[in-house]
Amino acid sequence: MAVINILSPHVADMIAAGEVVERPGSVVKELLENAIDAGAHNITLELKGGGATYIRVTDDGCGMAPDDAGNCFLRHATSKLRDEHGLEAIETMGFRGEALAAISAVSRVELLTRRSGDEAGTYVSVSGGDIQDMRPAGCPKGTTFTVRDIFFNTPARLKFMKSDRAEGAWCLQQAARVALGRPDISIRCVKDGKEEFFTPGDGRAESAVYALLGRPVALSMLPVSGENEGVAVTGFVSSPAAGRGSRAMQFFFVNGRVIRSQSLQAAVEQAYKNTLMVGKFPACVLYVTLSAGAVDVNVHPTKNEVKFSSEKRVFDAVYYAALNAVQGERPTLQMDLSRSTEKKLAPQTYGRRADEDAPVQTAMELHSPRVSYSAPAVPRTAPRAGVSPIPHRQPVQPVRPRPAAPARPSAPETPVPRPTPAQAEKPAPVKSEPAPEPAAPLRLAGELLRTYILAEQGDKVLIIDKHAAHERMIFDKLKARGREIMSQTLLQPQTWRPGPEGMELLSANGELLSELGFELEPYGEDDVIVRAVPEDLDPGQTAAALEEIFEKLKNGSRDLARDSVLQTVACKAAIKAGWDTDPAELLALAEKVASGQIRYCPHGRPVSVTLTKKELDRQFGRTT
Q1: 546-550: Cβ within 8 A, 24+ apart
Q2: Where does the pLDDT of residue 145 fall: very low under 50, low under 70, confident under 90, or very high at 90 and above?
């Protein structure tokens, strides 16, 4: 009996669709790229239900003829590639002819398109890969794709979908990346009836950076421009003083295509060597331009990964362009926007109710990440509870301290039996134990490179990493407190933008953050106000700590998140290499290491190295 089955074309299409359509965000990316290839100058993206129930992309591109409107849903049908020679130099965003076939195989799609000069357009309805209806229709020049009910016929994929908010956030991220790569195209994104972002399409990269990443990020950027052996690099990198807690603000584009590249990440970060604080990452928006034949985009169906014919040449071009910007430290990006762009991006004032104490902000500020530095914080005697969970678009409820647990009744005292006269006459045997030898006194010898503590104890020399030791001391203190982690109220509350995906994590982990000493309140659609932080955390490190915490919450389970969050708080609160540290504090750390209380940092690295006098004598040839 035969055991090998030949799958039907329908099942094969559904399997192939999984390579292209991972989530609703994949549909957004493919449709936007198709609109760009069609020569559109204005594109509108509309989302509902996180994109799973409704996605519509409208463009003013070239449109399609009636015959092409039906053929575009067939597998390997494309207008961008004619033969194998076209693969040698791909200049379009798409070329595989799989996107529309994959999307229509797992959803319900409606297409409305018309070419310039045609009297009527064409309407096509497709469900599960099969054309249901096709007829002439009136419509403006261009193309409109409407995608509904993604994965309606593949429940195995549907059950892995995240919440509408998380999927919607991912759709917005995909759209923003595409828009950032093409400043010459105006892209408007509307989610659940609310405009999320709008790029003016004036061809200026700084306008796109300002509109998509926000004013504070744009003003912290340094212009980049360079060329190396036919590889041109332009764009922006952040000032070393504006390092971030994660790589979320790193964007790379090759010939207008957004890509992921560890090589380009390494090139940028190498340019910041010795200028950026440890644990910080640069932000960047870099446009790499080279000949189409020098880059292979036919690596993965999603086209997010590429290969270069000369990896070193591209690495060097990015590295030296970023290095020149950082070393030159030219004035940061000047936002001298054109008059038309200023008009399109004119801020609108959004007020708040009189009983709310948050400041009035503009529309641009509501959609831009911000870091404000607070005045010195006052330690509090008891932790305050945060908002848990934070409801979406719900008014903030008053925050009250948790009630103290009721005192337990004390157990009745049990009388101690008195010894009998016979027992009293017989003395108990006394065991003699050798007294422990007193530890040799510890002497602080100094500090090396403002990083390592040098201490002497007996015939041993201790070299201690002061950051790692202090980090472990804070981590142990936080863990010992359990749920009772002290917090400090910020005299000047800070505003922070976790983004839509971060707001989803915040809703799911609000109680955990509250237990750790953070007090966060929702402010607007995608922003929060930070009113309190753990007492050991420097208020100036609040934004960096939250960015790192959210990165760990995103990639780990809730059960593992607590220790990871404590590690982040301890790391941000610990003294840093390069800081001037009080000798008394150095001695206190050295004593804890010498006593054996601290051996490893929370990440598992050893905190000290011990050299004996005999080892030193051997190095200097003093042994006999």
Answers
A1: 546/245, 546/496, 546/498, 546/518, 547/244, 547/245, 547/246, 547/248, 548/245, 548/246, 548/279, 548/572, 549/513, 550/498, 550/502, 550/505, 550/506
A2: very high
Q: What is the 3-state secondary structure (H, E, C) of 578-594?
A: CCCCCHHHHHHHHHHHH
Distance in angstroms between the alpha carbons of the first and the last residue of the chain: 84
Cβ-in-10-Å burial (0-12, 13-18, 19+) of 539 comes to buried
Which pLDDT tens digit goes with each residue over 305-350?
A: 778 888 889 999 999 999 999 887 644 455 555 666 666 555 443 3
Asked if 328 and 321 touch (Cβ cutoff 8 Å), the reply is: no
pLDDT tens sequence across 45-81: 999 988 989 999 999 999 998 888 888 888 766 655 5
* Confidence at residue 356, expressed as pLDDT on a 0 to 100 scale: 39
Domains of the chain: 9-198 (3.30.565.10), 221-328 (3.30.230.10), 382-390+441-624 (3.30.1540.20)
- Judged by DSSP in three states, 113 sits in strand
Strand partners, 609: 463
Q: For the beta carbon of residue 489, count every other beta carbon within 10 angstroms.
A: 16
Both tokens assigned to 523:
């402010």
- Written as six digits, the tokens of 78 are 């494309």
What SS3 state is found at 21? coil
